[in-house]
């Protein structure tokens, strides 16, 4: 049988890649990763041909290509229904899907003005009003979920929602967004998730630097 592959971009800058990778880990999928280095145009051109949208992540499983993070999450839930990607309770599943959808299509101010850059630190950064509104909504989501589930993760055990919001946790570290309890504890638990630790360690060692993502905003 053909090898399962996950095509991803930079581990330091690629927030969608991180989500796809965490989802595959959460599902317990065995896969090889194929990394498109941000600074090698030939390699990028070749590998991106594998992804119909020219975007990463793209999962290749049993001859199928799944090229959108939310579609990957739902596909993984279909092939690993007991993998815990979605909560057991129907109402929780509905809320989990709703907040994943919100993360997938929204928070554009935060995403554009505070990009993921695991290695970088911007102490004292002041987000603009659009990003502040996004932070407010994200922290409200986390607070409500943790209050309902009692933690330790958004829906008790880890689910696709934690993978979808994990890059936001790293953004909050990079851009010095201060969190109070219980959100600070939640952020710490996401950072301590062994799969996150593995990703962060690789991101720190990644040699490539993309100047446009290194700029101060
Ligand atoms: N909605 C897409 C977004 C994916 C996306 O924007 N990926 C970025 C990198 S994180 C990308 O591939 N950009 C083009 C490139 O890197 O060449 C998804 O859910 O997967």
What is the fold's blueprint, element by element?
Layout: E1 5-8, H1 15-26, E2 32-35, H2 41-48, E3 58-61, E4 64-66, H3 69-79, H4 90-105, H5 108-113, H6 129-149, H7 160-174, H8 183-192, H9 194-205, H10 211-214
Parallel strand pairs: 1-2
Antiparallel strand pairs: 1-3, 3-4
Helix pairs in contact: 1-3, 1-7, 4-7
The protein binds glutathione (GSH).
Glutathione is lined by residues 9, 14-17, 55-56, 68-70, 104.
Structural notes for this entry:
With 217 residues, the protein is α+β, with helices and mostly antiparallel strands. The protein has 2 domains: 5-83, 3-Layer(aba) Sandwich (Glutaredoxin), CATH 3.40.30; 90-202, Glutathione S-transferase Yfyf (Class Pi), Chain A, domain 2 (Up-down Bundle). It has helices at residues 15-26, 41-48, 69-79, 90-105, 108-113, 129-149, 160-174, 183-192, 194-205, 211-214; strands spanning 5-8, 32-35, 58-61, 64-66. The protein has a 4-stranded mixed beta sheet. Helix 1 links the parallel strand 1 (5-8) and strand 2. Helix 1 runs parallel beside helix 3 (69-79), helix 1 (15-26) packs antiparallel against helix 7 (160-174) and helix 4 crosses helix 7. 36% of the residues are buried. The site of glutathione has 11 residues, from helix 1 and helix 3.
